Amino acid sequence: MYCVENTVIIEDTIKKSRFLGLAIPCQSAHAALQHIAQLQHQHPHANHIVFAYRIQSPQGLLIKFHDAGEPSGTAGKPVYQHLEGKDLINLLVVVVRYFGGIKLGAGGLTRAYSNTARKVIENSILTEYIEYVKIELTLDYNQMQSFEYQLKKLKGDIIQQIFAENVKLLISVPQGQVSTLTHLFKRIRFKMVG
Question: Is there a single domain that holds both residue 103 and residue 163?
Fold first, then answer.
């Protein structure tokens, strides 16, 4: 699976209709809907704001696509097929259409939305999707420096730290590195959370 690093916008004109394609990284369906609402506010005169997303959540893969008033199956699904075909995740692709006065027909609409989605994805920087897990643990102060060094080498992060009698940490680490971390620090009790 792959992700898009940052938002990308492209523009295309097809038979006098203006198409804006946007690829927007999203971590939740709620964030995707907020982006869509913002685009509706930014483009109040657009005729159609079509979208599709694939987002990884604790409940599994969330997928949605929307034709936004275009004939059924001619807009949202062709956009979604590029997300699925390229195995993209945590991504919202939006195509904003300003109608130019010439009807495209069902086939023309499908091609226009599909090509706009393809172009915006091709112009995006893709990175491999890495699933992270959160872990709680407690360290002695003298273990902290070594632990931070190893965690950084494994591409993990400290999310929260509480200094008391010991150091209580909440960390995030790539799922594939958990066994390495627990092997390096055998005497520390690790507890997976959320």
Answer: no
